[in-house]
């Protein structure tokens, strides 16, 4: 990689509007960084070099004519589960996927804000795992420690942003797939309220547990991208009331009641919180207390929430496997999950969907006592490349649950969460913490995250340049 790193999203938009740089220059530099980073990071499945330069030239003409849109001419990336017209959407899978004819609604809205889509980032097969490795595209590596994964399933987006290849990127989060890679690459990762960013042309992906979200180095950039991408398609299942999130950056959140929750929700597999992650998250709680917030150690009444997750997740995999051009090319673990999803796709799935309202009511009552939950994003630091990829189905599930037991309940509930950097564990491996809130709490979570960022300045530290 070159020492040149991308300016932030807001800074890029400001410089373009001020005439300090052209979109073509920003996009050319971005494409050069992506190419230079390819041998080490392997963050992109598709690079739209020719198309992106044409879009940049069009943005420059509009800027010269006085046009002003929030992201006019700014390069961004999207995860390869999101439709970009003229490109295939392989979602981490091998096989011959035809190009799609229309942008997904989130991409359409980014284009309406003026963004230039430079490429589609790598993701593990159908977004199932907290690592981004696969036979279709190889290993995506962590810019902080290339021997380790950046996480998943939005690992390509996280690696690209953390390394400074692009200023920000879209990801998706069905069990922590934005928050986990954000934690393991030292980024802000916003998982918004279900439906905040449209998932169209999939109106209810993974039976409602998957949402689109944003990854960036700063709270302001993640919020800016969220606002640009937000909005509903007329045929979306979930259409929450609109709100603006970027305005909350710099706003005093007030004195909040924060629950420090270190106990993972119950799962059939034991999960142990790494002592150094416990220490880092506890230190972050101390920082919140120093800022004037009331911090109490307490855990939400999760109960058997896992029973509402597994049928929805596996049924979602079964739906996607049925669309694959060549299912024989898929990972055996994917085919196994699809078989389970077909078994659970009747009465168990209906029961899982019905359980959501009661879970929201019970866990929502916790927010009568607290405003925000602070919890670890993961139980372990990022694993080494290959540590989980070579396992069988049951062993992968055990390892995945042991490493990442904290994020998925908020997907069942459909509520917002924001990963913030929490420091490092082991030999300089990034770890993170989640700020979690009830429905529609993105502005509060963003305000609190920005308050922490102003104190801790985590965005000022970059990954080391790779040797050679």
TrEMBL record:
Residues covered by the Amidase domain: 26-445
Pfam families assigned to the protein according to its UniProt record, in alphabetical order: Amidase
Top-level taxon: Bacteria
Cited InterPro entries: Amidase, Amidase_CS, Amidase_dom, AS_sf
PANTHER family: GLUTAMYL-TRNA(GLN) AMIDOTRANSFERASE SUBUNIT A, MITOCHONDRIAL, TRANSAMIDASE
Family note: Belongs to the amidase family.
Protein name: Amidase
Annotated organism of origin: Streptomyces graminearus
